[in-house]
Design goal:
2 helices; 4-stranded antiparallel beta sheet; 185 residues; 10 strands; alpha+beta; single chain
């Protein structure tokens, strides 16, 4: 195990003479929310993970790190769905920022997590802190009151997420097989 340029754990590259086949290098990311810990695994691509509980109650004061378009998207939802929309947008932004190494969550209001949602693409603008980049973000099954998103630098065929607290079972799979909704929460 080694770490990439941003400190994320990845399986070390074997020597070239070992003849590593594509799809044999595992990359992982860890995320936590309240008393639950999650791991996201993918082959051959760096991955970043964001996990958050869906907020309850009014969300108005939580809208500050969002663009005007995103604020409208949250506020136009029925009151009972606003918290899930907010958590979904936030985990997309946070995973993308973590992937590109930009820990500048204070600049989150300049990042549009909604416009490229259908393709899963989020563009992180460059700044003095870093070059920016593009992240491909997808929601992962984490339970009815939890939202998890993983970000990769290219579209990924499958990201697997595990809940690392009892019962130590996979929370579901995204991309490879149907997810088992509800196991993660």
């Amino acid at each position: 195990m080694t770490r990439d340029g941003f400190g994320r754990p990845v399986c070390a590259e074997p020597p070239a003479a070992a003849g590593r086949r594509p799809g044999t290098r595992l990359c992982l990311a860890a995320g936590a929310d309240t008393d639950r810990r999650f791991l996201a695994l993918i082959r051959d691509l760096p991955v970043a993970l964001s996990v958050h509980t869906v907020p309850r109650g009014p969300v108005g004061e939580l809208l500050l790190p969002f663009t005007p378009l995103e604020r409208d998207y949250v506020q136009e939802a029925p009151a009972g769905r606003r918290g899930r929309r907010l958590a979904w947008l936030w985990t997309r932004k946070e995973a993308a920022l973590r992937l590109t190494g930009r820990g500048e969550l204070a600049a989150a209001d300049a990042i549009d997590a909604l416009s490229g949602a259908r393709e899963g693409r989020i563009v992180i603008p460059g700044s003095a802190a870093g070059p920016g980049g593009t992240a491909y973000v997808r929601e992962l099954p984490a339970g009815p009151q939890t939202v998890a998103c993983a970000a990769t630098p290219a579209p990924a065929p499958g990201v697997r997420i595990w809940r690392a607290s009892p019962p130590y079972a996979p929370a579901g799979t995204h991309g490879d097989a149907p997810a088992e909704a509800g196991n993660g929460g």
